[in-house]
Amino acid sequence: MKTPKTRLLDVARHAKVSPATVSRVANGNPQVDPKIQATVLVAAKQLGVDLTQSRKNRTIAFVLGNRDTVNEFQSKVLLGAEGYCAQNDWDLQFISFRRDLNAPPANLQLPHALTKPNRPGGVILSGTHSVSILAALREKRIPFAVVGNNIVGDWRPEECDCVYTDDIRGSAELTRYLISQGHSAIWYIGNLRLPWFARCAKGYEEAMKEAGLEPKFREIHSEDRELGYLGVKSLLASGERPTALFVGTDQAAAGVYQALQESGIRIPDDVSVAGFNDTIGDVLHPGLTSVREFPRELGTHLAEFTLRRIHEPDLPPQQLLLPTELIRRESVRRIAPAPDRAARTQQTNAY
User: Fold this and answer.
1) Which residues of 246-255 are buried (b: 16+ CB within 10 A; e: fewer)?
2) Helix (H, G, I), strand (E, B) or coil at 55
3) What are the CA-CA distances from residue 98 to residues 102, 115, 127, 135, 137 (Å)?
4) DSSP, residue by residue, 4-21
5) Which segments in the chain show pLDDT lower than 50?
6) How many angstroms separate the Cα of 33 from the Cα of each of 17, 142, 205?
7) Which CA distances in Å does 176 have to 98, 143, 287?
8) pLDDT in tens, 75-132
9) For residue 328, which phi and psi values (nearest 5 degrees)?
10) Are 85 and 78 a contacting pair, CB within 8 Å?
């Protein structure tokens, strides 16, 4: 049986390069010319040799961008990625990364772990990232996969390995459900500076306009529980009285619950509430109607795409869109439609 060293020598002879070059390719050294790297990888594939088996660092870096905490959603993404890496004999390294999302690429510094000689073989980008980090990873020739819903700035998803949640369709479905329950004064609470809130807002707006209703937004530049809490407090202070609230995440919805309860407003008797991502909907009281994403599966596919990119760097970029599921719970109740809406419905039915 051939040793790993012997297999590398076979690849070097087949590719007509030095064993040192094969070793550098195997370890992901970015200094190797791309054409030479491609030649070595083709030779290894023809010989049935997995060069990554000889890597000194069989680690994928999970880079969580610009988040203060690892919330329930990110925890499940992380677990999915970790499980896939473990099944394939790779380790997962967690890195928290905070940088100005509007900084130009020239001013962005990658985490030290990604610039040292014995760096991880690839990167999973979760949390919130700017287009600058995509450019920096490409420049360093570091394979990566990214959560496509969470990039700030103009970018070309078709040029990246990315996994999406179909959040625009999911948020439109949730909005249509609220409308079907008689609600027309539906407000969206979120932080539209952050891409996943903005994407959900897009689906909400499309469904509202489709129904002939005016979209209404309460934007707070925060995240998680604080966002929902401040959003409701400011909405109530303005004198608005919605019949339903669509909150951009379950975590923000928990803050909405707290603010409503402090104000003596009952859910769903006085106002219906719905969230998005369904990570804590079943532990809130009353149970939160939400749109279920599949974060563990999201993490699994991110790890799969990253490892595939390491093994086959010349593959065309891959994109995957994961579906969502509307989960109905007790936080939404049916009400009598507003008179003007009821009249429109009757008029529509007459034709």
Assistant:
1) bbbbbbbbbb
2) coil
3) 12, 16, 10, 16, 16
4) HHHHHHHHHHHHTS-HHH
5) 1, 342-343, 345-351
6) 12, 14, 48
7) 37, 40, 19
8) 999 999 999 999 999 999 999 998 888 777 777 888 889 988 788 999 999 999 999 9
9) -90, 125
10) no
